[in-house]
């Protein structure tokens, strides 16, 4: 598979819409939801581009295809954060700045997750 390129703003709008759905959507449905001011063919091109990048799956739905995301929004965002962190020359500084920008509830949630991770990593603790 080729290296994934970053998504543009139109691609981001399309996949964000698809994340809100419980199932596949056709180009017509996507165009109706996010295509204001866009040609139908532009939406089809965006969907095809996301499929070729491996970010969407598709299946035949009549004469068109229906598309859905390969990964959830949470998985996608976490992968993106991990890529950004791994490309840093000073990951610890990036993490420190990130944690410094968290709201109190977010920091508490992160603290709980880290504690849960630590306790599941302890030998003899299930």
Task: Please report the total strand number as a whole number.
Answer: 2
What overall form do the CA principal axes indicate? elongated
Q: Unreliable runs, pLDDT <50, ≥5 residues? A: 1-5
- Rg, rounded, reads 19 Å
- Report strand %: 5-15%
CATH superfamily of the largest domain: Winged helix-like DNA-binding domain superfamily/Winged helix DNA-binding domain
DSSP helix count? 6
C-alpha end-to-end distance: 38 Å
Report on the architecture of this protein:
The chain folds into two domains: 9-69, Winged helix-like DNA-binding domain superfamily/Winged helix DNA-binding domain (Arc Repressor Mutant, subunit A), CATH 1.10.10; 73-121. Helices cover 59% and strands 10% of the residues. It contains six helices and two strands. The protein has helices spanning 9-19, 27-34, 40-52, 73-86, 91-100, 104-121; strands spanning 56-61, 64-69. Helix 1 (9-19) crosses helix 3.
Blueprint (SSEs and pairs):
Elements: H1 9-19, H2 27-34, H3 40-52, E1 56-61, E2 64-69, H4 73-86, H5 91-100, H6 104-121
Helix pairs in contact: 1-3, 2-3
């Amino acid at each position: 598979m080729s290296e994934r390129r970053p998504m543009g703003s139109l691609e981001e709008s399309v996949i964000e819409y698809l994340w809100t759905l419980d199932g596949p959507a056709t180009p017509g449905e996507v165009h109706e939801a996010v295509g204001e001011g866009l040609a139908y063919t532009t939406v089809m091109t965006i969907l095809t581009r996301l499929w070729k990048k491996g970010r969407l799956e598709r299946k035949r739905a009549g004469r068109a295809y229906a598309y859905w995301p390969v990964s959830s929004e949470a998985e996608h965002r976490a992968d993106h954060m991990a890529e950004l962190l791994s490309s840093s020359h000073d990951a610890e500084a990036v993490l420190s700045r990130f944690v410094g920008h968290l709201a109190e509830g977010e920091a508490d949630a992160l603290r709980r997750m880290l504690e849960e991770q630590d306790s599941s990593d302890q030998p003899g603790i299930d």
